[in-house]
Design goal:
- Belongs to the AROS family.
- It comes from Baryphthengus martii.
- InterPro entries: AROS.
- It is found in: Nucleus, Nucleolus.
- The protein is mainly alpha-helical and 140 residues long.
- It has one domain.
- Helix content is 51%, strand content 0%.
- It has seven helices and no strands.
- The longest helix has 12 residues.
- It is rod-shaped, with a radius of gyration of 46 Å.
- The relative contact order is 0.04.
Length: 140
């Protein structure tokens, strides 16, 4: 610990009114004249004023700061805003927007939709089969 810090600590602990008068005599550093007066002015001020603080600064409450920086849930306001408007974009526009926001990785791509298979039915009718039978087997 430096000597100046020890002196400051002792000045704070001394009784008010007694410490300032005896400190100049004890040290013997303050001379008379302009230089001594300047040193006396520079000396640590009394408990009335703290020069380390910024002028006009207001001490803020830690609780107020916490509440300012605390995360706020905006879900209700956002839902009200979204549900207020009834304009719905067309399906092609929504698909374009989703495609733009999708990444290039395979995991970001939506699964490919399989083409719907039509039920396999015959192209020929019952009459065509009878006609074929008659021609091929020779039955009337």
């Amino acid at each position: 610990m430096s000597a100046s810090l020890v002196r400051r600590g002792l000045e704070l602990l001394e009784a008010p009114g007694r410490g300032e008068a005896s400190s100049g005599v004890q040290r013997g550093q303050d001379g008379s004249g302009a230089a001594g007066a300047a040193r006396r002015r520079k000396r640590v001020p009394g408990p009335g004023r703290n020069r380390a603080t910024v002028k006009g600064r207001v001490v803020k409450s830690a609780i107020e700061e916490y509440h300012k920086k605390k995360a706020v849930n905006h879900l209700r306001e956002n839902l009200k805003y979204m549900l207020k408007g009834r304009i719905v974009a067309s399906k092609t526009i929504t698909e374009q927007i989703l495609a733009q926001n999708r990444g290039r990785k395979a995991k970001d791509q939506p699964p490919k939709k399989a083409a719907k298979k039509k039920p396999e039915g015959t192209v020929f009718t019952e009459e065509d089969f009878r006609k074929f039978e008659r021609e091929y087997f020779g039955r009337p």
